[in-house]
C-alpha cells in the first residue's frame, strides 16, 4: 500500500524524502519541478463591463483592467473577523482600506458594490478562549461580534449588504461538502474527517501562491497528502458540534467562505478581498474548493490583498498571537476616525504600513491643513477674510487639473497617496492667494474658492473623511480646552492691564487702610467692556467664566487663570 501511494506521489511530480525526527518517521514532499504550471493556471479575463479602473490582481501579480460580469454592479466578498477577542488596529487598517476602495468605486466610478462579509463564530480559537473564560463559545462570539460592529461604525466603515455567520449556515456547508465529494475532489476518513483532495485538481492548486520547494509533511494525520485541508472536522469532547452524513463535527476553516459566497453570488465572483496573510492557505483553499464545487475554470476574477500594519521599527505584523496590538477602542481615545483614515490614505492599500506616533502626527497635520483651508476659504467667501485680488483664472485651471489627476490616480489601482498629493497641491495654491490684507482693492473671487471648497469636501467625503463632522470636534475636546484656556488667559491679561492704571490705591484718612475701589482711566473702560462682551458671548457657546469681583463702573469679573474656573459643554 505504501509503495503504491509513493508511486502515485512520484507520478504527480513530487519527490519523497524520509527522515527521522524525535524518533518519528516523517515523510516530506518536495517538488521535482516547478509544480506551478502557468498553462493550467492562466487567468481568464472576464467578459462584461469595463469599469475603466485597473487594479492589482493577486492571481496574475500585476494590474489588470477591472471588468465586471454585470454592468455597473460589483459582487464583492470579504473575510470578516474571527470573533474571539477585541479587534485591533491591524484589522481596522484592512477594513478601512477596503472601505475606501468600495467608496471610490461607488462615488467616483458609479459602481453598485454588493458586499458580503462572513463572521467566523466557530473556530479553534473561539473554543479555546471560551474554555479559558468558562463561557459558552456562542456567548463569546456574539459579544465580540457586536464589539467589532461598534468599532467599524466608530471608524465609519460602511456595513456590508449583509453579515453572515458561519453557525447560521451549517446545512449549506454540509451540502457544499457533499457535492465536492460527489465531484470526486474530497474524501472521508475512518475518523470522521473530510479532506479536500488537492491531487484531484492537479497543478491547478496554487493559483495565488507558487508552491514550489517543500510543501508540507506527512505525519500521523489521516489525510492522504500534506497539502490536503479539512472541510469537516470530527467532533471532540466538550466542543460544539452538528450532525452530518460523516458523523458529528464542525466545519473546517476555509469551507465557510466558499459556501457563503456561493450561496449569495453563485458560481462567479467579481472581487474577493482580505489581508495579505490570508492569501495562503485560506484564499488558495477557497479557490480550490469553490472551483471543485462549481466545476468551473475560474471562480473569483480578482483577489485584492491589503498590506500588513507594523509597529514602527518592527518587521512583525500587528497580531493578537504576538500580543503587539492596539485595540480600536484604545486607539480612538487618542486619535479620531478622520485622522486614521488620513493615515491609511497616505500609503497604497496593498503596501505595508508603519504605525507610530510620528506617522499619526503626519496624518493629523495633513488633516489640519485641509481643515484650515476649508475654514479660510469659507471665511473669504463670507467676507470675514480680506485679501488682495486673486488670480482667479489660475485657480480655475488648477482645480480642473486636480480633478482630472485625481480621477486618473484613483483609476490606477486606487492610488490614494497620489490623490492626497494632488489635493494638497491645490490647497497650497489656494492658500498662496488667501493672504490677509488690511486694504483691499479690486473685485473678490468668491466663486472659485467656493468651487475649490466644495471639491475638497467632496473628495474627502468619498474617502469617508467628514470635514463637517461635529463629533470630531467634540472628540478633540482636549485641544479645544487648551484653546479656550489660552483665550481666557489673554482676557485676564487685558483686564489686568486695563485695571493697573494707578500705581497705588488711595488710603482711607481715618483708618489708613487702602480703599478697595479701583477707578480705571476713561480710555481703558472700553477694554473692560470688551472683556465683559467676550465673557457674555462665550456663555451661549458653553464656555462660562465665573465672576469674582465688581469694578466701579464696570460689571465685569476677572477669572484668575490658576483657578481654572471654566467648563466646556
TrEMBL record:
Catalytic activity: S-sulfanyl-L-cysteine + L-cysteine = S-disulfanyl-L-cysteine + L-alanine; S-disulfanyl-L-cysteine + tRNA(Cys) + ATP = (S)-disulfanyl-L-cysteinyl-tRNA(Cys) + AMP + diphosphate; 2 L-cysteine = S-sulfanyl-L-cysteine + L-alanine; S-sulfanyl-L-cysteine + tRNA(Cys) + ATP = (S)-sulfanyl-L-cysteinyl-tRNA(Cys) + AMP + diphosphate
GO cellular component terms attached to this protein's record: cytoplasm
Entry keyword Hydrolase: no
One GO term (biological process): cysteinyl-tRNA aminoacylation
GO terms assigned for molecular function: ATP binding; cysteine-tRNA ligase activity; metal ion binding
EC top class, as a word: ligase
InterPro entries: Cys-tRNA-ligase, Cys-tRNA/MSH_ligase, Rossmann-like_a/b/a_fold, tRNA-synt_1_cat_dom, tRNAsynth_Ia_anticodon-bd
EC number: 6.1.1.16
Top-level taxonomic group: Eukaryota
Domain tRNA synthetases class I catalytic, chain residue ranges per copy: 70-364
Stated family: Belongs to the class-I aminoacyl-tRNA synthetase family.
Annotated NCBIfam families: cysS (TIGR00435)
UniProt name for this protein: cysteine--tRNA ligase
Organism of origin: Sinocyclocheilus anshuiensis
Gene giving rise to this polypeptide: cars2
